[in-house]
């Protein structure tokens, strides 16, 4: 019996419902690994499978919290409601139980190797030069957290078991599984309970913590088998009192893969979380391949240094503080659908005005109006964007040529190029828009 067959048997034995007459688990579907496939035509709004809440793997359903005790669990939490550490350690503990764990059959079908950025070499990560995604991996933070947790395990081997079973590799694997496959599964509340909770929150003076509690982060067997692809979602999860239910959103033909959604993130997020990229014709530019949801960040400090190269640091800091106070942003996202955001224009106007003009603005606490963005300011922004493009360390033309011969590239080289080329195409299109848009000339003062 295959691991998938054993998993399906475990799933149904534990109360899961699986419509095997219309869906099946495929081992390598469309080159995307394990996935769910329609074996018969499926009508919209059809239930594909249901997952009992008690086989969802979370800090609520695992006996880990009870096993280690409240004091040790609080040490793992480390006063951080949003930290995944308690769930990572619950999963490590369950995994180390082997056949004694309720989720043993589930662990056996989960990936043991990953292609996400956490597992890339330093040389491979250097291929992403110019992007901001490498800074978001947090590998050093993960290693530091593991060392902190390992000390807790060492002091409590009587409940954790052999410390040798708690390795950095296992810690990273479980963290990667949560990053790439987890769902938010809140504790079920009736409408009356929700209304009462909202009323209590409104009455509280303290600021509400909007971070997702680790108790609401869960691994959801069967639901996480579904793959995702941009603009391909044809099923979604509905949350009920006693179960989670996967429902078809549209008619699905026999043989088609069933896709859930990752909310269509840009390639930089796809490669960081899941280890793959979307490389398909762009709806905004059909002559090119990539991800229509790509985003590139333009940090405000590039604009600031270009606008005020000789200004005192204190003067620069005042402008950034004003920007943050009034806009809440010090970096701007450019997308295929919004190449020159209004806030970016406002930032350019703010950073390029004279010190006297800025002092007046500090008193009024009013931002410049984007309508004042002129051809002169557009030329300034073009210079800033060109500086941003230089951070990638190679030319867009050369890298597009490499992508044209993608079959000769190592897999991670190809993925890195898809990310960096996608971001620079947006920057290039932003320059074209700035060059071709008829912005008003700066009005000359009359005597």
TrEMBL record:
Q: Span of the secretion signal?
A: none
Comp. bias intervals (Acidic residues): 194-208
GO cellular component terms given for this protein: nucleus
Keyword Aminoacyl-tRNA synthetase annotated: no
Q: Name one GO biological process term.
A: methylation
Enumerate the SUPFAM superfamilies for this protein.
RuBisCo LSMT C-terminal, substrate-binding domain, SET domain
Where in or outside the cell it occurs: the entry states: Nucleus
> Transferase: is it a keyword of this entry?
yes
Listed name of the protein: Ribosomal lysine N-methyltransferase 4
Organism per entry: Wallemia mellicola
Identify which top EC class this enzyme belongs to: transferase
- What's the stated role of this polypeptide? S-adenosyl-L-methionine-dependent protein-lysine N-methyltransferase that monomethylates 60S ribosomal protein L42.
Instruction: Using the UniProt annotation, give all residue ranges assigned to the region (Disordered).
Output: 189-208
Location, primary (coarse class): nucleus
Superkingdom of the source species: Eukaryota
Sequence ranges assigned to domain SET in this UniProt record: 14-263
Q: Write out the transmembrane intervals.
A: none
- Give GO MF terms, alphabetically: protein-lysine N-methyltransferase activity
One Pfam family assigned to this protein is Rubis-subs-bind
The family classification in the record reads: Belongs to the class V-like SAM-binding methyltransferase superfamily. Histone-lysine methyltransferase family. SETD6 subfamily.
């Amino acid at each position: 019996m295959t691991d998938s067959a054993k998993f399906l048997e475990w799933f149904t034995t534990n109360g899961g419902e699986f419509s095997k007459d219309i869906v099946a688990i495929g081992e390598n579907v469309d080159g995307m690994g394990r996935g769910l496939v329609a074996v018969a035509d499926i009508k919209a709004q059809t239930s594909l499978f249901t997952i009992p809440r008690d086989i969802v793997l979370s800090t609520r359903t695992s006996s880990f919290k009870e096993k280690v005790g409240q004091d040790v669990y609080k040490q793992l939490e480390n006063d951080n409601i949003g930290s995944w550490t308690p769930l990572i350690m619950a999963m490590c503990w369950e995994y180390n139980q082997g056949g004694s764990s309720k989720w043993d059959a589930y662990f056996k079908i989960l990936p043991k190797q990953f292609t996400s950025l956490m597992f890339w070499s330093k040389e491979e990560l250097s291929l992403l030069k110019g992007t901001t995604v490498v800074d978001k991996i947090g590998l050093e933070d993960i290693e530091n957290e593991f060392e902190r947790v390992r000390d807790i395990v060492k002091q409590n081997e009587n409940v954790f078991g052999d410390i040798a079973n708690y390795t950095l590799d296992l810690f990273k694997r479980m963290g990667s599984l949560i990053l790439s496959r987890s769902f938010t599964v809140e504790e079920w509340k009736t409408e009356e309970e929700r209304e009462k909770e909202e009323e209590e929150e409104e009455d509280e003076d303290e600021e509400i913590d909007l971070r997702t509690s680790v108790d609401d982060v869960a691994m959801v067997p069967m639901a996480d088998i579904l793959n995702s692809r941009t603009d391909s979602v044809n099923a979604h999860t509905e949350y009920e009192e006693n179960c989670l239910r996967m429902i078809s959103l549209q008619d699905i033909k026999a043989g088609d893969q069933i896709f859930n959604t990752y909310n269509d993130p840009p390639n930089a997020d796809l490669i960081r979380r899941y280890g793959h990229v979307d490389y398909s014709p762009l709806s905004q530019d059909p002559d090119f391949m990539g991800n229509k949801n790509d985003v590139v960040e333009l940090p405000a400090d590039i604009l600031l240094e270009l606008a005020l190269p000789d200004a005192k640091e204190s003067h620069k800091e005042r402008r950034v503080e004003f920007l943050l106070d009034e806009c809440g942003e010090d970096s701007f996202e450019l997308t295929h659908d919004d190449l020159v955001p209004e806030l970016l224009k406002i930032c350019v106007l703010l950073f390029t005005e004279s010190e006297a003009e800025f002092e007046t603005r500090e008193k009024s606490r009013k931002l410049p109006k984007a309508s004042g963005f002129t051809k002169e300011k557009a030329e300034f922004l073009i210079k800033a964007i060109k500086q941003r493009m230089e951070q990638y360390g190679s030319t867009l033309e050369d890298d597009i040529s490499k992508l044209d011969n993608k079959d000769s590239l190592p897999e991670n080289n190809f993925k890195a190029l898809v990310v960096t080329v996608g971001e620079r195409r947006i920057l290039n299109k932003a320059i074209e828009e700035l060059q071709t848009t008829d912005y008003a000339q700066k009005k000359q003062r009359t005597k």
